[in-house]
Amino acid sequence: MKIRKLLILTVALSLLGGTAIFADTVTQKVKVIFNKQEIDDAGALVDGKAFLGVRSLGDTIQAITVWDDSAKKVTIFKPNVHIFLMTGSKPFGEVQNGKSTSFKVFAQIDNLLTDISAFKVTISDPYGEETWIDGRTSKDDDFPKSKDNFWFTSDNFTYKFNSAGRYTLRFWMKPSDTQPMQIVSEKTIISK
Q1: pTM (two decimals)
Q2: CATH number of the domain that 148 lies in?
């Protein structure tokens, strides 16, 4: 009786191991590179076709991704968001290391083909620590009425560029109250 149980267990484990090996050969991980940047949670190769995670792709191309669970549908929106920075009356993209700089963020947004409930602007230091600069929600009186074409000017903001390196200014949008903020544009500031 013990030999029969041992034989059944051996066959079951062999089948399980064979299935795992077969599944691994059918689905292979694929490395996806976009503008020399590897996408996290890269793709999978299934039956000779590469599949990508929509959220990872949306984050990489700086687009808004919206999941409709009832329709089982993903929609991707890629608005044009142009950012420039002004200190006084001069545009800039480079600052002196260790110096505080007072500036405003100007953004022009067009081709926004979905409603949004909020947006914000942040800056991250070379180590990834993020600081909020300015933003609006749909409850604010000065929230844009026209979603397709609007301008945004932040309040004057003073920031100390403590370290040498690349600082990343990001423009985020929130498609609805239930969805998270998503990056739609970035600008780099170099501190020397």
Answers
A1: 0.79
A2: 2.60.40.3880
Q: Where are the beta strands (DSSP E) in the chain?
A: 27-30, 33-34, 37-38, 43-46, 49-51, 64-68, 73-77, 80-87, 90-91, 94-95, 100-110, 118-124, 130-137, 149-153, 157-160, 165-174, 182-191
Calculate the CA dihedral of residues 21, 27, 28, 33 and round it to 10 degrees.
-160
Per-residue pLDDT of the chain (192 residues; tens, 9 = 90+): 566 654 455 555 555 554 444 444 556 787 778 777 777 666 788 887 877 777 777 888 889 988 888 898 989 899 999 999 999 999 999 999 999 999 999 999 999 999 999 999 999 999 999 999 999 999 999 998 877 789 999 999 999 999 999 999 999 999 987 889 999 999 999 999
Q: Domain span at residue 10?
A: 2-61
Using the 3D structure, point to which of 61, 89, 111 is the last residue of a domain.
61
